[in-house]
Amino acid sequence: MVMGQTLCYKILKAHHVEGEFKKGEEIGIRIDQTLTQDATGTMAYLQFEAMGIDRVKTERSVAYIDHNTLQSGFENADDHAYIRTVAKKHGIYYSRPGNGICHQVHLERFGVPGKTLIGSDSHTPTGGGIDMIACGAGGLDVAVAMGGGLYYITLPEVVGVKLTGKLSPFVSAKDVILEVLRRLSVKGGVGRIIEYFGEGVKGLSVPERATITNMGAELGATTSIFPSDETTKKFLEAQGRGEVWSELSADPDAEYDQIVEIDLGSLEPAAACPHSPDNVKSVREIGPIKIDQVCIGSCTNSSLSDMLKVAAILKGKTVHPEVSLVIGPGSKQVFNMLAECGALSDMIDAGARIIECACGPCIGMGQSPNSAGVSLRTFNRNFEGRSGTADAQVYLVSPETAAVSALAGVLTDPRGCDADIQITMPEKFKINDNMIDPPAEDGSTVTVRRGPNIKEFPKNEQLPETLSARVALKVGDNITTDHILPAGAKLLPLRSNIPAYSAYCFHQVDPEFPARAKEYGRGVIVGGTNYGQGSSREHAALVPLYLGIRAIVAKSFARIHRANLLNSGILPLTFENEADYDRISLGDELELAGIREVIESGAKVVVKNKTTGDEIVCDLPLSDRQKKICLAGGLLNYTGNCK
Fold first, then answer.
1. What is the pLDDT of residues 242-265, one digit of tens each?
2. Most buried of 50, 52, 113, 125 (most Cβ within 10 A)?
3. For residue 369, how many C-alpha atoms fall within 13 Å in the half-sphere facing its CB?
4. Is the dihedral of CA 120, 65, 94, 104 positive or negative?
5. What are the strands of the beta sheet with 116-119, ordered from one edge?
6. Do the beta carbons of residue 125 and residue 226 sit within 8 Å?
C-alpha cells in the first residue's frame, strides 16, 4: 500500500530536477527565490560576479541590509553601497537599512506558499511559517542559485510534529519551539525536515508559525514547515498579496519517519538557559532570578502581534529601575503601525529603549549586557559570548515572559500578569514598499561601487594527490560558527575583508590559532560532535581556508557548515570510531595518501598520524557531484570547469 505524501515532499518533488528522489540521496532542486543580508551578502555577490552572469535567473532575489547597520566607520556603509549597486545592476531587489530584518520583511512582502527559498542566513527557514521550503545556505550556494543553478541537499527524513489543543494565555509560540528543542536537542534535526500538522495548527497565526520555523535552525534541521491554510490566506490578504495564496497540506495518511506529539494546552512558559538553545526549563522551575537586561525583537519575535502584546503588558507601568529594556521592531511596517496605534508610546512611556528595525543585539551589534549580567532575550541563540559580553548569562524567552520580567526585575512567569493581551489584528497592514528599491531595467548602465575594505574571497587549489598537514587546532563538542568567527560590532565590519578578519579566527578558543596556522602553511582542525553549528556564515569556512586549513576531522558536522566546507574545498572527514579523536594531538603531522584516488573510488579515508604512527579510518560520504567539487578544490573551481 502506498502511503500519502508529506507536505515538504510534495513541494520538493515539484522542484526536483536532479538525482534519485530517495531518502538519503543527494537531489538538486530548482530555487524560486533567494535572500541575502549584508554580513554575508558582500561575499555572495562577489562570488556571483565571478561567475560572469549578467542577470539573476530566479523569480525574486532580495538583498537586505539588517546586520551591519551600526556605522562607526566607513566599512559598513561601503558594503551597503556595494550591495546596493550590484543588486541594481544584476536584477536584485534591495531592502534599505531601516526597512527591517530580512526574515520578517520577506514573510510580509515576498513569501509565497509552495515556493523554494534559500538565503545566506541560517534563519531563512522562517519562511516555512508561510509554507515555503526555505533553507539557510552558504553565500556561494545562493550565488549559484541566483545564476540559475540547482541547490543540492540530501533528501531528508521528515519528523512530523503533531499539534493538538490550544495555547493558554501568556503561553506563546516561543514556548512551543523551546519544547521541541527540549525534546530533540540542537542535534535532533540534523538530516531532517520538521513538519507541523494537526488540529493545533489552526490556532496559530502566521507570525507564530514563523517563530517556530525560525528556531528550527537551532535543531540543526534542513528546514521546518507549516501548511498553507485559511490562516495563511488571511495573512497574505492583509498584506495585499492574496493572489499568491494556494492551499497546501500533507495528505491525511502521510507517513513520517518520526512523530512528536505536543498538546499545546499542556505547555507553560519556558526559557533556554545558558549557553544552549536546548537547555530548556520552565520559568517556574528556574525561579525568580535577578535580571539586568531584557531585549525584545530579532527575526524570531519582532512581529506586530508580538509587539502589541508587549505594549499591552507595559502600558501604564514602569520598567524596573535595575533593568535595561530594549525593543527592536522587526520591520518598518511593524514600526509604523506601532506608532499609529499608540503602542509605541506605551513602550516608551514605560521606559523601553527603542532601537532601529535590525538584528542589533541578537548578533552582538550593540546592547551588550553588563559584566556577568543576566539578560533575557526573545532571540534564537544564547551561545557563550555571542551577546558581546564574554561572561553574560543569556536566557531565551517569549515576549510575554520578557515584558513581565522587565517590570518585576526578576525572571517571572507571565501567567500571573493582569494585562489583557487578547490582541485584535488589523484586517489590512500598512503597506509602503518605498524602502525596497527595484533593480535597473538595464544593468549595463550601473557602475558597481567597491570600497577599500572589500577584498577578494580566497580561492583554493586543486586537491593534491597526497595531502600532508599539521593539526593546527583541536576543539571539543558543539563548536559554533561564533566560536570559529565571532560577530559583534567590532568584527562584523570585517566580513568583506578576509585577510583582516582572519586575525580573529577561533579567537575565543585559542587566540594563537591564526599565527600557528600561517606558520604551518597547510593545516587540519580536529573537532568533536556537531562541529559548525549555528549561523550559515560561510566565513567560518573561507577564513580557515585563507589560513591554510585543508581538512577538518570531526565526530560530526552541522549541515550548513559541512556544505560550506565542501564548497570551499576543505575536506569534512568524520571519525569512523569516535574514540580515535583521542589519538590526535595539537601539532601532529597527518597524511592523507592518495586522497584523490580515495575520493574517486569512494573508499574509506585512512589518515596516517606520522607523529605517532597511528592509522585512523575516517568517512567522507560524497555524491558524485561532491567528489568533483572536492577534487577541483571547491564549488567555484568546479563551476568554472563546467563552463
1. 999 999 999 999 999 999 999 999
2. 125
3. 27
4. positive
5. 133-136, 116-119, 33-37, 60-64, 93-95, 436-437
6. no
* Cell output for 544: 580557515
3 state SS of 217: helix
Instruction: Kindly report, residue by residue over 260-281, the tens digit of the pLDDT.
Output: 999 999 999 999 999 999 999 9
Q: What is the pLDDT of residue 643?
A: 55
Q: What is the dihedral of CA 423, 382, 414, 360, to 10 degrees?
A: -40
Q: What is the pLDDT of residues 386-426, one digit of tens each?
A: 999 999 999 999 999 999 999 999 999 999 999 999 988 89
- The rounded mean pLDDT for the chain is 96
The C-alpha cell that represents 144 in the structure block: 549559484
Angle, helix 304-314 to helix 399-408, in steps of 10 degrees: 20
- What number of CA atoms fall less than 13 Å from residue 103's CA on the CB side? 36
Q: Retrieve residue 593's grid coordinates.
A: 595518501
Give me the mean pLDDT over the 103-115 stretch: 98
Sheet containing 353-354: which strands, arranged edge to edge? 280-282, 270-272, 393-396, 374-377, 293-296, 324-327, 353-354
Spatial neighbors of 623 by CB under 8 A, at least 6 apart, are 19, 25, 26, 152
How distant, in Å, are the alpha carbons of 123, 176, 207, 337, 398 from that of 173? 16, 5, 9, 22, 8
Distances (CA, A) of 551 to 210, 294, 462, 610: 36, 41, 13, 16
pLDDT per residue as tens digits for the range 289-347: 999 999 999 999 999 999 999 999 999 999 999 999 999 999 999 999 999 999 999 99
Please write down the HEC assignment for all residues of 113-180.
CCCEEEECCCCHHHHHHHCCEEEECCHHHHHHHHCCCCEEEECCEEEEEEEECCCCCCCCHHHHHHHH
Please, what is the angle between helix 343-350 and helix 304-314, to 10°? 50
The residue written with cell numbers 525572571 in the block is 411
Only one residue has cell 530548482, namely: 30
Q: What is the DSSP letter of 391?
A: T
